[in-house]
Amino acid sequence: MTHAADAPTPYELADSAASRLAELTGVERHDVALVLGSGWLPAVDALGEATAEIDTTDLPGFSAAAVAGHSGRIRSVRQSTLSGDRHLLVFLSRTHYYEGKGVAAVVHPIRTAAAAGCSAIVLTNGCGGLKEGWRPGQPVLISDHINLTGASPLVGANFVDLTDLYSPRLRGLCKEIDDTLDEGVYVQFPGPHYETPAEVRMAGIMGGHLVGMSTTLEAIAAREAGMEILGISLVTNLAAGLSGEPLNHEEVLEAGKAAASRMGGLLSQVVARV
Ligand code: 8IG
Fold this sequence. Notes:
- By secondary structure, this protein is an alpha/beta fold.
- Helices cover 30% and strands 25% of the residues.
């Protein structure tokens, strides 16, 4: 036996968190999980009726989050659809890789959602946009990603396939709802600093269209857990060097407020059809 023999594995910790979540929310199983990124919080009320809201720190394995516009809370939302009620598990914030708490902490919500019964997850983020013509406030479907963190949530000889990581079926549903939606490749930088203009050019040469500090590690963990994944970026700013102006966090929050009703409508419609 190693010294870690009595420490829970990340999967056991997620099982404990899911059990406690069921107790605290009174919801035995959740159906679809959503993780809200920068600028997405104003869209949450469109999803349905909040039946419970808890602090992440009420659950095993979560630590406190602290970024303006994020709150370390988890909401259980009941959505009434033609095919009956479904229970959404909404993470109002995420743990970012740049917080230095380790990759296991970054993906603990994902594993908890899977353990809570979720078969699909919607990963949202706010990010910088590279494509000509994209404007702040514009949603973009993530078609694929490039993970520049150099990290993985998986440990050991666990060779998980990442083909079609971002579900073509769910992207298709989004386009049925809004046929103006564009797609792009999301590039995760480690952060917390934004990119230099040269790094943004590099991301473009590599085939990227969106630059951010989240999502890819979560998507990998969600794939490992067998969940269907939808990734949606809100372009909250043009990537560094493209607008002639420095980046700031306020424009991110502003773009979110301005886009809230469109984002809320898209999210609630797609979640109803997942
Ligand atoms: I909001 O331009 C947001 N998050 N890396 N670059 C990176 N992260 C971001 C950006 C951006 N905008």
